[in-house]
Design brief:
A 6-stranded mixed sheet has the order 10-9-8-13-11-12, sandwiched between helices. Helices cover 39% and strands 29% of the residues.
């Protein structure tokens, strides 16, 4: 039985130390800015990106990895004797999934599974990390795929953005477009659902929006509030992230947790001032 390697992309924003420990392979997307191309998380860190965004007169664009970038990764891992499970940003948010499929065309079909994660950012990171942990313990390719699919179906993501301008400009706003024109003092709560960004509700002031996110999560999780994995993500706001983690510990029984910054590619579409709560309910 072959070992299984997990391949994901840089929108997951998995810290390099964790990626190395979990034997994860990360294929970077790109940020294109003022004639320069930066590999997401490699040539430009989240902190560098958001600091530059504050004063920049121009806006960057983003692009998916090429099929050849995936093909190179596949060849290296197959040569090392691995079967491969690839899980990348939702096909409804990026063409990265198409590149991953095209990159596998010249390799044995039974050695590579490419999963449309229907996720991105921290939920994608949690999927990759938990699946990689199973792989390191000897799970088969099919077992890893089934685990990743189960996580994708159960994990929940709620996030608050300061403005919908960035999502609208990047074409990622989807059904949340009905919140456009919202008064500045109303903050949209959005949800990642079936691989797309959908509107949840809008709340007056940012602090009340955060409070409402917890109320929604509590209603979803029930009285026990048992969370297998909890994540908090933000755009370069470590203090706010820690405050949310502290609040989460008071509300829920958490088995594992992770705080992460939103990658430059994702932050380019959500904009500064974004914060999110991710939770995977414990199986009953």
């Amino acid at each position: 039985m072959n070992k299984v390697a997990i391949v994901t992309d840089s929108t997951a924003a998995i810290p390099s130390s964790i990626a190395e420990q979990q034997k994860l392979t990360i294929v970077p997307l790109s940020v294109n800015w003022d004639g320069q191309t930066y590999l997401d998380g490699i040539d430009i860190t989240p902190q560098q990106f958001y600091e530059r965004l504050k004063s920049s007169k121009s806006m960057p664009t983003t692009s998916q990895p090429s099929p050849s970038a995936f093909a190179e990764v596949y060849k290296q891992l197959l040569d090392q004797g691995y079967d491969i499970l690839t899980m990348v940003i939702s096909s409804k948010l990026s063409s990265t999934f198409d590149s991953a499929i095209q990159g596998a065309e010249d390799f044995p079909k039974d050695r590579i599974i490419i999963l449309n994660s229907l996720q991105t950012s921290l939920p994608l990171a949690i999927m990759a990390m938990m699946t990689s942990d199973a792989a390191l313990k000897g799970a088969t390719l099919l077992e890893c795929k089934n685990l990743a699919t189960d996580i994708s179906e159960r994990i929940q993501t709620l996030f608050v953005v300061d403005t919908l301008e960035f999502l609208h400009r990047g074409g990622r706003i989807g059904a949340a477009s009905r919140f456009l024109g919202t008064a500045l003092n109303l903050k949209p709560i959005l949800k990642l659902q079936n691989g797309a960004i959908v509107p949840q509700e809008k709340v007056r002031t940012f602090s009340k929006a955060i409070k409402r996110v917890f109320e929604i999560a509590e209603a979803d999780l029930g009285k026990q509030g048992r969370v297998e994995y909890l994540g908090v993500l933000s755009t370069n706001s470590p203090k706010l992230s820690e405050e949310i983690v502290t609040t989460a510990r008071q509300h829920f029984k958490i088995k594992n947790e992770l705080v992460s910054e939103i990658s430059p590619v994702i932050g380019n579409h959500t904009g500064p001032g974004t914060v999110g709560l991710v939770y995977l309910p414990e199986k009953k």
